[in-house]
Amino acid sequence: MTIRDTPEEWEIRATRTPFTGNKTSVRTDDVVMPDGSVARRDYQVHPGSVAVLALDEEDRVLVIRQYRHPVRQRLWEIPAGLLDVPGENPLHAAQRELYEEAHVKAEDWRVLTDVYTTPGGCDEAVRIFLARDLSEAEGERFAAEHEETELELARVPVGELVRGVLAGELHNNCLVVGVLALLAARQGESLDALRPALAPWPARPFES
């Protein structure tokens, strides 16, 4: 038996956008249910994101600590950012985020996993990359602003992150999914068997 998600779209009788923000918006759809009734569904429309699990030669993951106002916590995360331009190549976006947030570059890139963060209330799709063969980036550091002015940067052993995830001490979804996916990939064929960095991504199509 093959288990996989499949595309499907139910009839929409009406749609409107009651709120439009700087990067995201809220959409309201009147969706026809299987029994013919119509139900209203509100959800956040999101451009999509990329995240980078950067693994160094000492088996440590590059993580950042950043204040997140909606949850009123300072979270440990992996570098991540929005797909600001429609159709943007996610690999290029991931390389940019790794440079901007950590001033690091990587020679080896692979797709670790693709996820929908909150499919019941948001259409955000995230591609999480595995980046290896790390080195310091050249040139000037990116000028940080807002929450990013107080970023903390660390390199933490994979085992310590796994412990923190399972102990309920680390909560960022990309970090949790990325670290556990890394663990699963190591127990499978190998990290080199992961999908190539430019693997198709139906949730956010792009040009290579």
Automatic annotation (TrEMBL):
UniProt-listed GO biological process terms: nucleoside phosphate metabolic process; ribose phosphate metabolic process
Keywords linked to the UniProt accession: Hydrolase
Domain Nudix hydrolase: 44-183
InterPro entries recorded: NUDIX_hydrolase-like_dom_sf, NUDIX_hydrolase_dom
PROSITE patterns (UniProt xref): NUDIX
An MF annotation (GO) of this entry: hydrolase activity
Pfam family, one: NUDIX
UniProt cross-references to Gene3D superfamilies, sorted A to Z: Nucleoside Triphosphate Pyrophosphohydrolase
A GO CC term assigned to this protein in UniProt: cytosol
Identification of the protein by name: NUDIX hydrolase
Lineage, highest ranks first: Bacteria, Bacillati, Actinomycetota, Actinomycetes, Kitasatosporales
